Amino acid sequence: MSPTIRVFVARLAGLSVFDPLGDPVGRVRDVVVAFSSTRSRPRVIGLVVEVAQRRRVFVPMTRVTSVDAGQVITTGLVNMRRFEQRTNETLVLAELLERPVSVQSPDETFQGTVEDVAMEQRGKDWSITKVFCRKTSSTPARGLRLTRRRGETILVAIEDVTGLQTQSADQGAAKLLENYDDLRVADLAAIIHDLSKQRRAEVAAALDDDKLADILEELPEDDQVEILGGLDTGRAADILEAMQPDDAADLLAELSTERQEQLLQLMEPDEAAPLRRLLTYDEKTAGGLMTTEPVILGPEATIAEALAVVRREELHPALASCIFVCRPPLETPTGRYLGLVHIQRLLREPPHSSVGSVLDKGIEPMPADAPLERVTRMLATYNLVAVPVVDPDGRFLGAVTVDDVLDHILPEDWREDRHEVTHG
Question: pTM of the full predicted structure?
């Protein structure tokens, strides 16, 4: 009889996956299990593996030949279609960890949370056999002895645990976010897109406002509306304030007029004002595409000051590529637009020089009603990553960046399909 192999699932997160020749396939991102009324132990049906370009694919356990020594070996036959969770499937790392459960073993009964689960291989089949729990309530002891320490951990049989299949609004999302902490925002957004509606709401509740705002900017419109609708009105307004104005305006445009006004009223007036302006433009014009918060300086600002501004970590790379120089006021709509300065030019000039002395006046600003096609041609013709937008009086209104244009010229469902593989 072959020996039983036991593996704790949380330790699989991030492990490298190889084919039989030792070539890397990807990294483990989750384990897929299926609960059944006819089986006491959930069956492990496969792994979610992250392959090239952050695609997540499904690898059945029948294709896994070895799980040991900090690596996973497969048969090498991997279907590269993007993983889509089915209704009868549960993701261990994304959905089970930190779930509140009840434990009733022969020795004691207690409430706890799931810290990890163990899966075992018997023959060709894998199943969940053990649950590593952290107690959330003390167990009274006899006599004068002290109660057990709060937070004690214990390994129990899966048969002694109830609540694993019960969706809970109190289920923590910290473990999920911890497991994907190394992902870029766009890739984390793709993970969240694949979760169930309830799980997306739980993750949104666990994220801070700035991170959730960043993720919303990368999600499809349906997911954005769903998540924002699940937040209380006050937090929804805070999230909109934290988003880039053009993305926040696009999201507001998907809501009813009544809901738009409700959220705008709750926002700080200086945060709501640019969104109100953006909502007046057609979405496929320069005004509808632009952001109202590029880097703006007066002509007397020094090169050193300009470099300090574009060095800020939170600044989007496209917006950090150039500085728009205007007369006061320097908040949009500004005073008269004078020109722009590319960051490469800044690096070639003495730090004490003024930005007004190195202006590029050859880039013609766009009117707010310029159509998308005109903006696209402008970016392509002059190899730009951002173009200025002005009103009829020459006041600077904002800038359209190349990523804003790509969002509108790609197919509407590109965010859902960006991890798909095209087969020849």
Answer: 0.65
Element (H, E) at 170: none
Stated as kind and residue range, the H or E segment containing 202 is: helix 197-206
Note whether residue 360 is domain-resident: yes
One-letter amino acid for residue 248 of the chain: A
Answer whether 298's CB lies under 8 Å from 330's CB: yes
Partnered with residue 342 across adjacent β-strands are 322
User: Structurally, how many domains does the chain consist of?
Assistant: 2
CATH number for position 12: 2.30.30.240
329 within a domain of the structure (yes/no): yes
CA 198 to each of CA 33, 55, 204: distance values in angstroms, whole numbers, following the listed order: 18, 23, 10
- 69-105 burial: b if 16+ Cβ within 10 Å, else e: eeebbbeeebeeebbebeeebbbbbbbbbbbbbebee
169 and 22: one domain? Answer: yes
Residues 176 and 310 in one domain: no
Residue 45 lies in a domain: yes
**Tens digit of pLDDT at every position of the chain (424 positions):** 556 788 999 999 889 999 988 899 999 999 999 998 777 899 999 999 998 877 889 999 989 999 876 899 998 777 777 788 887 889 999 889 888 999 998 888 999 999 999 999 988 889 999 999 999 855 444 433 344 445 789 999 999 999 887 554 344 566 677 767 777 888 888 888 878 788 888 889 888 899 999 999 999 899 999 999 999 999 999 999 999 999 999 999 999 999 999 999 999 999 999 999 999 999 899 999 999 999 999 999 999 999 999 999 888 889 999 999 999 999 999 999 999 999 999 999 999 999 999 999 999 999 999 999 999 999 999 999 999 999 999 999 999 999 989 988 887 666 555 434 333 3
**CB-based burial label for 151 (10 Å; 0-12, 13-18, 19+):** exposed
Point out the domain boundary residue: 185, 213, 247: 185
Cβ(228)–Cβ(200) below 8 Å: no
Burial of residue 359 (CB within 10 Å: 0-12, 13-18, 19+) is: middle
Integer Cα distance of 244 and 135 in angstroms: 42
For 163: left if phi > 0, alpha if psi spans -120 to 50, otherwise beta; the answer is left
Question: Which structural domain, as residue segments, surrounds residue 27?
Answer: 1-140+147-185
Report the Cα 199 to chain-centroid distance in Å: 14
Residue 272 lies in a domain: no
CA distance 115 to 95: 12
Residues in the chain: 424
